[in-house]
Structure prediction request, 321 residues.
Amino acid sequence: MTWLDILYHPIWAVSTALLALVVRIQRRGRWDPQACTVQLKGKTTIVTGANTGIGKFIALDFARRGARVIMACRSESRGTAALGEIREKTGNSDVHLRLVDVSSLDSVREFAARILEEEKALHILVNNAGVSGLPRGITKDGLEVSFATNHLGPFLLTNLLLDLIKRSAPARIVNLSSVNHKKGHVDFSHFHGENLTYYMDKVYNHTKLHNVICTNELARRLEGTGVTATSVHPGIVMTEVLRHYPLIVRLIFNLIGFFFFKSAEEGAVSSIYCAVAEEMEGITGKYFDCDCSLTLPGPLARDAALAVKDFEVCERLTSKL
Ligand SMILES: NC(=O)c1ccc[n+]([C@@H]2O[C@H](COP(=O)([O-])OP(=O)(O)OC[C@H]3O[C@@H](n4cnc5c(N)ncnc54)[C@H](OP(=O)(O)O)[C@@H]3O)[C@@H](O)[C@H]2O)c1
Ligand SMILES: *[C@@H]1O[C@H](CO)[C@@H](O)[C@H](O)[C@H]1NC(C)=O
Ligand SMILES: *[C@@H]1O[C@H](CO)[C@@H](O)[C@H](O)[C@H]1NC(C)=O
Ligand SMILES: *[C@@H]1O[C@H](CO)[C@@H](O)[C@H](O)[C@H]1NC(C)=O
Prediction:
């Protein structure tokens, strides 16, 4: 036997396939959305960034349950394509596209105004739109673009829709954060692009920490209103999330991901769980892991005094002067 014979021996193919199968079975969550019979007929839902990745599968699930689904997307063409796909797959024609660029406060205000005009209720809001690896940029509101997209825009959106959500109680707000929030720090000068270094997803990690902090503070403020707010980690999911990274990084991610990471459909499960599962009724201010288990977020995300301060800073930054 030469070393080439060993290299190409069928044993490798068989064991790789077996390993992949075991990993696939293992990474399947504990909760199965298909087995959950909750119906959303008569309920109105909004999912941001619903044209691809995790958001598309969240919207698809809500549509299957008979909800009125508003897909909040920034691209008309990408949004329309996903809208057609979801309508066709579910037979639900009460699925609609509304355009919003969550990184722009003006766009968020316009979007929210239209929703308040057109919708009588809002039972589920999923803040899913997000970016990773964007180069440094400052929006016309003077905000650093990753912070504007992942945190301040969605923060404003949630606040503008809050009265409608409260009137629709019981209602749920679900925010997609990430386990990366544990590596984030809070420095309010970050919001303006100061004191930031752009390496190893550091900026992303900071933004995802603000998500958990403000979700928890919002939950505290909403106590007794019948509106709950939870944050989730979707898992490591094969989506377009690395679109701003070099091709080689994406190739390696996808190669490893094929065996070990979740599909976008699997990545949507923990968010769907928080949004619809009966056992989640009334549970608020908590963080859920990708297997739908209740998990303690990082220490900074549990600092109540920091949360009050962060929420106030974000309110000030997103209020009209
Ligand atoms: N994938 C992971 O491993 C992972 C891990 C932890 C957390 N997450 C979180 O999960 C969420 C969904 O990510 P994904 O993996 O599904 O990513 P994705 O495939 O890149 O999808 C992101 C979605 O957000 C939209 N979006 C981005 N910027 C926007 C803006 N300024 N205004 C409106 N929409 C915008 C995108 O729209 P376009 O298509 O038009 O750009 C797209 O629909 C994000 O919050 C992400 O941080 C993902
Ligand atoms: C989740 O909600 C909070 C409170 O409104 C908001 O500050 C935060 O930006 C939201 N998170 C996401 C990912 O949109
Ligand atoms: C952030 O940078 C400013 C100057 O731009 C500086 O005054 C401040 O101390 C820095 N904050 C932190 C936490 O490093
Ligand atoms: C951001 O979080 C990820 C995942 O926890 C970690 O691998 C990475 O090192 C973090 N980046 C920095 C700069 O802390």
User: Anything to note?
Assistant: The mean pLDDT is 94. The longest helix spans residues 145-167.
